[in-house]
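Table 4 source record.
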Amino acid sequence: MDEKRLVKTSKMLSRILRHEPERVGITLDGAGWVRIDALLAALAAKGNRLTRADLDHVVATNNKRRFGYSADGLSIRANQGHTVAVDLGLTATVPPPVLYHGTADRHLASIFREGLLPMARQDVHLSADTETAVRVGARHGRPVVLTVNAAAMAAAGHEFRISENGVWLTEAVPPQYLSRRP
């Protein structure tokens, strides 16, 4: 699979497995899983032929590790980022003292007023390193990295979870736990 098709397929799978499973006529279970044979058949019915080998390649080479297979290898799901209601079954975990969030500078006024909110997603996404936060922020405009005082949030009772691909998730980040990284 060439790079262009790989990226296009990854974006399509993200859209289907995170946001619009009905677009191809599939239903995710309560934990976000769908049987691979059902997904491939639904895609083929919509004119998008994808083989299991193609799917394996996308899952194995996606630099963001967006997708995961079930233990038996028969189902697939997005690791995080859902706008459809799913319970990924992630347990609360003690976060590192500091986490980061990448955004665009045009959003700073509302973020420092309201905090970080999940918007259409189920959770706010945070990263453990600034490099990832810069990449995320750059997708939305001129990147700005915010530092999240995760230790103080956890001490105040906020829950953190970590997805299979290393993205830290929390319900929201109130503004008092945020600062702009120089």
